[in-house]
Each structure stands twice: as structure tokens, then as C-alpha cells.
Specification:
The complex is a heterodimer of chains A (195) and B (190). Chain A is an all-alpha fold. Chain A is built from nine helices and two strands; from the N terminus they run H-H-H-H-H-H-H-H-E-E-H. In chain A, helix 1 runs parallel beside helix 8 and helix 5 crosses helix 7. Chain A is globular. Helix content of chain B is 73%, strand content 0%. By secondary structure, chain B is an all-alpha fold. Classes of the chains: A mainly alpha (195), B mainly alpha (190).
Chain lengths: 195, 190
């Protein structure tokens, strides 16, 4: 029951994007389509889960003073793994995400979970926390990507349902800000109802 | 002339915050007041320029000759983290007033993706050493311009009557979107 809580809090109550406002750079940067959002979300989830596992396993060995640099090295290692694997197996996604793959290192969400959760909890809780937060993040990215793709190019997951062009604005940078702003309004409204 | 173009491109045309989406966390987080925005800009400028200089040299003269470019991400983030730490210690000794002004912002900068982003972009775009430094300066100015202008708008925004679910961050995003729209007017001038 407790583990379910660790897992599920990442979706709405403590959603990284809509509630905590963490990891906003990749959220805005890669969500021109839902597919890109999904790719970024899953890559971040992988890094988050793996770094949570390692951090929670060696938390007692890391001296308190150097814990942040130690966490960063652990995270950077897994980011490099993701970078190399993506380059080898899904080069098109690698090109689309571009700069934002190495930037997973400085995604405050990953470091934040390592510091605030994995360094204080046991292995299973940390895995569940990483999975929940990561998938919640992925969900937010897919939602934003889908909204921008529908409005901007009239398609979802690459399946086009409109003739001609959509509203170009939503593919361009300003549309990312505006779409995310309204999605947060929507999330606030939902939270108000459930609370 | 080439360097002037690099600066104009970095400040206006592909503004790091409004066009490249780097450094959004401080852009939203510390833009409540113009004063703090200025402090953050100072600290970021400082670290961004030094970090780009160091990472460029390390990449070009250590990683490339040894064929270790896949270690780029790890190396860069370590360099930035230790630089931030070093700058903090040195500033404390050399210039206490400057440390007072920038102090609280320095630790935040390690996880500011703008710094790592600019360092990675600089080596990706094959600038020479001077070009990389100019590129970093341009991006720092662009970051500062966006942040300070945005914080000015947000100070006004606080006094307005905004619908409750839109208060705070959501309306800030929509305003940022409109700002980004305005900056798109610069497209094509370089």
C-alpha cells in the first residue's frame, strides 16, 4: 500500500511538471510532437530509476559533504549510457532531442529525487519513487507534446488527421510556453476539484 | 564583425531562454523581483564565461586527442560543479561585496542547464577559442535581458487581478510565451 503511494504520487499530487515545476527546460524544448515527449520522458525515467537505485544502495558509503558531486557523477554516468544507446539504436530520436539528452544531467528533477528521496529511503521505495516520478514526468511531456502536435500540425503521434497546416505558432517556441501555461491552469483546476 | 554577429545572434535571434529553452528554472524561479534577477544574471554571466573557456580547452586539448569525447557530459558537469565551488571560495576572499551580492545564487548555478547547454553548444558549433568565449558572453547577455525584462513584467503582474487557477506560474508562462513571440520578430536579422 505504501509502495503504491510512493509510485502514484508522481502523477498528479507531486507531478514534476505541473506541481513542482521541475525539469521545465526539456519539457518545453522537446515537446514539438508527442513522440519526442515520450522519448524524452522514458529516457529521463530510466536515468531517474537507475540513479535512485544506485544512490539508495550506496547512501551510507557517501560522506555527507561530497554527496551532491557524487550524485551528479552517478547521474551523468547513466545519462551517457542513454546518450550512446540512443545514438546507436534510435538515431532519429537522438537527432530530434539533440542537446536535451546531455542536459538530463542538470534536470533538477533527477538530482532532486536523489537528494530528497533516494538518499533517505530503502531500495524498493526508491525504485517506486523513481518510476512514479519518471512516468508522471513522461505523462506531462506526452500531454504537452500531444496538445502542441494537434494544434500545430494537426496530427497525433505522427498520424495526421487534418488537411493542410495547423497553427504554426504551437510548433514554435512561444506556443510551448503558452500551451504549458494553460495545461498548468487545467491541472490546478483538477487539483481544486479533488482536494 | 564575425564576433558582433555571434553576439547579436545569441542575444536576439536564438535567445537562450525564449528560443532555446535553457535556464527556464531560474527564469521562472528568481524572476519575482528585478533586483534578484540582476544578481542571478551577474552570477550566471560569471560562471558561464569561465565554464565555457575551461570546458572548451579541456574538450579540445584533452578529450579529442585521447579519443574520449563520449566522456563529454560527465567531464563538463564536473568542471562546472567544481568551478562554481571554486568561484564561490575565491569571491569570498577577494571581493566580499560581490560575494554578498551573488552568494546565494552561486550554488543554484550548478544545475542551471543554461551553463552546461552553452558549454556543449560551444564545442558542437566548432568555434575557435575566442569565438566560444564571445558566444558565452552573448548568451549570458541574452539570458540577462530575458530575465530582467521578464521580472519587470512580473512585478507589475503581481498587482493585477488574475483568475485564481492562473495565479503565479501559469500566467507567468503565458506572459513568457508572448515575450517569446515578440523575440521572434528578430528572426532573420543575422
Amino acid at each position: 500500500m505504501n509502495q503504491w503511494k510512493n509510485f502514484s504520487k508522481g502523477f498528479i499530487r507531486e507531478n514534476a511538471v505541473f506541481t513542482l515545476f521541475l525539469g521545465l527546460c526539456p519539457t518545453l524544448g522537446v515537446t514539438t510532437t508527442a513522440i519526442n515527449g515520450l522519448g524524452m520522458g522514458l529516457a529521463t525515467t530510466f536515468v531517474l530509476v537507475m540513479s535512485n537505485i544506485v544512490v539508495s544502495l550506496i547512501k551510507n558509503q557517501i560522506p555527507d559533504k561530497v554527496r551532491i558531486p557524487a550524485f551528479i557523477v552517478i547521474i551523468a554516468t547513466f545519462v551517457t549510457v542513454v546518450e550512446l544507446v540512443m545514438k546507436a539504436y534510435v538515431p532519429s530520436l537522438f537527432d530530434a532531442l539533440g542537446l536535451f539528452i546531455p542536459l538530463i544531467v542538470v534536470n533538477c528533477l533527477v538530482l532532486g529525487r536523489a537528494e530528497a528521496f533516494a538518499s533517505k529511503n530503502n531500495l524498493l521505495s526508491s525504485v517506486m519513487d523513481g518510476l512514479g516520478m519518471g512516468l508522471g514526468f513522461a505523462m506531462a511531456l506526452v500531454a504537452l507534446g500531444a496538445v502542441r502536435e494537434v494544434l500545430g500540425s494537426g496530427s497525433v503521434f505522427g498520424l495526421s488527421f487534418l488537411e493542410g497546416d495547423g497553427m504554426l505558432l504551437f510548433v514554435l517556441p512561444p506556443g510551448a510556453f503558452i500551451a504549458l501555461g494553460y495545461l498548468i491552469v487545467l491541472a490546478n483546476k483538477l487539483k481544486e476539484k479533488t482536494a | 564583425m564575425e564576433y558582433v554577429l555571434i553576439i547579436i545572434a545569441a542575444v536576439f535571434v536564438s535567445n537562450i531562454v525564449l528560443n532555446q529553452f535553457l535556464g527556464i528554472c531560474p527564469f521562472i524561479g528568481v524572476s519575482n523581483k528585478v533586483d534578484t534577477a540582476l544578481g542571478m544574471t551577474g552570477a550566471v554571466t560569471f560562471v558561464m564565461v569561465i565554464a565555457t573557456l575551461f570546458t572548451y580547452l579541456i574538450f579540445k586539448y584533452i578529450l579529442v586527442p585521447l579519443d574520449l569525447t563520449y566522456l563529454r557530459t560527465i567531464t563538463f558537469i564536473l568542471v562546472i560543479a567544481s568551478l562554481v565551488q571554486m568561484v564561490e571560495i575565491m569571491l569570498k576572499k577577494i571581493s566580499p561585496p560581490l560575494y554578498q551580492a551573488l552568494g546565494i545564487f552561486l550554488p543554484l548555478i550548478t544545475t542551471n542547464c543554461a551553463v552546461l547547454g552553452v558549454a556543449v553548444l560551444a564545442v558542437q558549433q566548432d568555434f575557435n577559442l575566442l569565438g566560444s568565449v564571445v558566444f558565452a558572453i552573448g548568451n549570458a547577455i541574452g539570458f540577462g535581458l530575458a530575465l530582467v525584462a521578464f521580472s519587470g513584467i512580473r512585478e507589475q503582474l503581481d498587482m493585477l487581478n488574475v483568475p485564481k487557477p492562473m495565479k503565479g506560474v501559469p500566467i507567468a508562462f503565458i506572459v513568457a510565451g508572448l515575450m517569446a513571440l515578440a523575440f521572434m520578430g528578430f528572426t532573420g536579422i543575422v
